[in-house]
Amino acid sequence: MAGYLVEDTRKVTTSRLKEMKAEGKKIAMLTAYDYTTAQIVDEAGVDVILIGDSASNVMAGNITTLPITLDQMIYHAHSVSLAAKRAFVVCDMPFGTYQVDEKEAVRNAIRIMKETRCDAVKLEGGIEILPAVKRIIDAGIPVCGHLGLTPQSINKFGTYTVRAKEEAEAEKLLSDVKVLAEAGCCAIVVEKIPAPLTQKAVASVDIPIIGIGGGAADGQVLVIDDMLGKNKGFSPKFLRRYADLHTIMTDAIGNYVADVKSGDFPNECESYK
What we know:
The protein is of the alpha/beta class and 273 residues long. 41% of the residues lie in helices and 13% in strands. It has eleven helices and eight strands. Strands 1-2-3-4-5-6-7-8 form an eight-stranded parallel β-barrel, surrounded by seven helices. Helix 2 packs across helix 4 and helix 4 (70-83) packs parallel to helix 5 (102-116). The two termini are 38 Å apart. The relative contact order is 0.11.
């Protein structure tokens, strides 16, 4: 694995994730949706690559994550899994693929694992989806949970505001964290919740709690298009931009267009004789 930007080039697994939490080593998680990007993400040392149903937004242009289909998620996840050599690869189960009943949830999870070669699936929700979580895990498939702001429930919430600020919802979230951990989940994402609540979640279980908009946790996850600055229209408080690819790409493409229009490209050195 020459070229990796991390010293530990072992394949990340469920047991390794648990070890990392026990050893106090932070877990870096990032989304990817295609082979080329996933190859870069993997080689840069990201521990977990998430094929998020956020592909519905950033890849397909939908307003919410709800429209993306199982077939579309499998397409993206297959491409990412082919590229990832070290990272633990997690595929979101899209809306409608696990909420109906646990038997259908298992069938869909098995299909994802067989057709994508990813390492785990991710489901949104707590006690409400526990039967599906248990059946999937019993089938030998690792499950990552997702609590707090769960985008697949946006029509119920009606807003993307911070969740679990009220005592009752906060208590339920902590209860769901423990329930999912006891069921055998390998990790749990907590999205857009108060930082003190995230700390309570971290302390309550021995599996990694991965934050996004929840303050410090065992690890963090961001959408790659957001952290690279490709999407200028999205600027939540929790987002840190590490590049301005929107500007870089616009300038590069503009220069290409100008060179083609002027006849400067291709020049003699870029042409075959």
